[in-house]
Amino acid sequence: MRLGRPDVLFGLPNPDEYCRWGDCRMYLEMKNITMVFGSNKAVDNVSFSLKKGEIHGLMGENGAGKSTLMNILGGVYRPTSGQVFLNGEDITNIDEKKASAAGIRFIHQELNLVNDLKVYENLFLGEEIVNRFGITNRKLMRQRAAEVLEVVNMGDISPNTPLSKLDTLHKQLIEIAKSLLFEARVIIMDEPTTALSDHEIKNLFTIMRQLKAKGVSMIYISHKMPELFEICDSFTVLRDGKIVGNGYFHEIDEEKATTMLVGQHVNDKLDKKQRKSDVLLEAKNLSCDHYFKDVSFELRKGEVLVFTGLQGDGRRELAEALFGARKLTSGHVLLEDKPVKYHSIKSVIRSGISMVQRNRKERSIIKNMNVLDNLTIAQFAYSNKNFVVKKNDQLRVFHDCKRLLDVKASSPRMEITSLSGGNQQKVIISRWLELKSKVYIFDNPTQGVDVGAKFEIYKLINKLAEEGVSIIVFSQEYPEIEKIGDRCIVMYNGKISKVFDREEFNEKEMMYYSTGSDKKAV
Amino acid sequence: MQSVLNRVFNKENFKILCTDYSFILSFVILLIVALIFNPKFLSYSSIATLLSNATITGIVACGMTLVIISGMIDLSVGSIVSLSAGLGVLLLNQTNDVLLTLAFCIVFGALLGAINGVLVSYVGIAAFITTLATMSAYRSIITQIGQGGPFTVNKEILRSFSSVATGKLFGVIPYLPLFLIGVVLLIGFLLGRTKFGRYVYATGSNEHATILAGIKTKNVKLFIFIIIGALCGLSAFLLASRMSSVTASNAGFGYELDAIAAVAIGGTSMSGGRGRIAGTFLGALMMQMISVILIAAQIDPFLNGLVKGIIIIFAVAFQSSNRRNV
User: Fold this and answer.
1) Nearest to A389 among B195, B202, B206 (CB)
2) If 0-12 CB within 10 Å is exposed, 13-18 middle and 19+ buried, where does residue B6 land?
3) How high is the ipTM of this complex?
4) Residues of B numbered 192-231 whose beta carbons fall under 8 angstroms of chain A's beta carbons: which are they?
5) At what angle do helices B77-95 and B217-243 cross, to 10 degrees?
6) pLDDT tens, B179-219?
7) The domain over range B14-325 is classified in CATH as 1.10.3470
8) What are the structural domains of chain A?
């Protein structure tokens, strides 16, 4: 346990205590922040500080508490306990608006810009300069926009340009310009480089360094080690809501950082029979726009192949492309030595590939239809026979599904949305099992599913594999990968960065490769 | 007996009655009001008249049910009726062939619907805009052909032609309602018993998920427009037969409103994914009942539209307020 600090206890500043890392007073301080949601401690006694002109890398796996912490800083949440100081002023209980007025600016991963508006209109969106009759002063806004664009090296772009004409880097810079316009003192950037090319990242870093020299502090949230090591001075690693490490980047190396990120998980591999069998599916040099490039892999009969990586690695798009929901720009897929026909999703299904989608609510559930129709809809599309729906056939499928996956639905006529998340997912999986495909793609199959149902889904995947069905799973949960995977492909930046066989599975190494730690810095 | 009543009249069923089957509730209320104004409202002749009057827009409303369940809208129905009816009369006068005219009206209507469908599915223009544009275009074509004047059925064929709409089976049952009932059963079968019907609901409920289940929703939408076009063609044929003369600028005018209104008070969700053909059938009857009540209550017929508008808003507001609680 940490003792209360003398300045907090006695209300006296103590320069030595403040300056753990350097010679000056901390600009931003978050002290002993705890945030409780229900029975879950999202952030647990975290203290965090930032000097003027410092770039601080905030790391942690999904759900580690990064965004909760940043939302507390940005005034979206009020912490259950703890205090936040900005330049010595207590800002613990301010709201979002006041936080941004105080100079704390949050640049989200999904940019908050309006494509249909002009650059200057975006810069001043919601904070327009108006006269006392509420009429906007466009001349002044354009003038100030031009000034601030100069600061982010975009002086050649007119404030009147429609935003839609700009590329992603420039949109990113507009967000930064927007924060500068309102005198940001702390800018929080949530994975700003996901959509940027290497060259664009370099430009972004140049601007960040200029801002740093002007005394703007930044918090940089990212998974990408090379970037973190290049641009950040100091770091904090969160895991399960707690700080597991902090310090300066020049004191550590990438391996050490990865160890902190992952921690020591208990090794709980399930026993899986390993067999060598024939190659069933072969993907050659698959590419799609800037999402992924030259992805090649083989899938054996009865094998569970897992793709993992971190956000923005191109996995999602790869999953969609394999199912025909996204057009490949080049490359082809062979199934039993015959090319898979990619002209429609239906033709892909007919070739023998089924896919359980991620994000069930948006991509799988047809909310106004009952369990029975949700269960059988893919089968309708698959077979051309029988224009008229035969109730008995549908009911047979329902009972199969109940037997196989223990779906808890009292009646087949229940609305699908009245089932629990786990049961909904089981219905969706059964929808595809009925087609008896050769290859099943599971994209994040246990998203929003309770522990019991998760376990049943793992059991089902392993059982299918034993029956000789080949399975591709897209997952970013290591315990899941361990339970089902025969082989695991780690992706980084749209490319395969490493392939692991089951014996080599190791969370730390997988994280090492999915953060691109083996790559040289940009 | 008591337990049966309890089972039927429990809270759960009442909730369903107020949400999914609210059209039955509104129908009963309107029926009571109609009976107050006209105690003979339930006599055979007034029922037959009501059904006959509801037929021509009712058939269009059946097609509109498909369109709205799938999450779209069709504003061009009135113009399709007018264009098919006008050209149908011209063909009839040339050939004196009633059956050929019927076939022509249906096929030509389907063709006009297919144009809408291709524009919506394959060109990718929103259904609202597409059908708004074709509403104006189709109407303009027929007005030009008729030069503003009416298309009148020739004397020699008039008798046999108008007997389609005004005649009676065995001298008792008027033909017109039989067409409506036939279409209701057909669309009901399509929606309730076929794969296509499932696709219609699925497309309106979650199009993205439907596409990812391997269904070509573009084709589904195209077919829906072809079906509503064909039904408009049938409706045009019956209209021509009933009126024996079709005015280009007037025929089918406001049908889109009547059809959408019948679908709306029939309980079909305006955002798609939910709805029943039985609701539309009762909805179409309700629209006629409102007119009858207004006449019986001696309300100025010019206020007809006002009263209909208010009733639609009440019906839909009632549904959505109930659905929000679910």
Assistant:
1) B195
2) exposed
3) 0.81
4) 193-199, 201-202, 204-206, 208-216
5) 50
6) 999 999 999 999 999 999 999 999 999 999 999 999 999 99
7) yes
8) 17-103+185-261 (3.40.50.300), 110-180 (no CATH), 268-352+438-522 (3.40.50.300), 364-436 (no CATH)
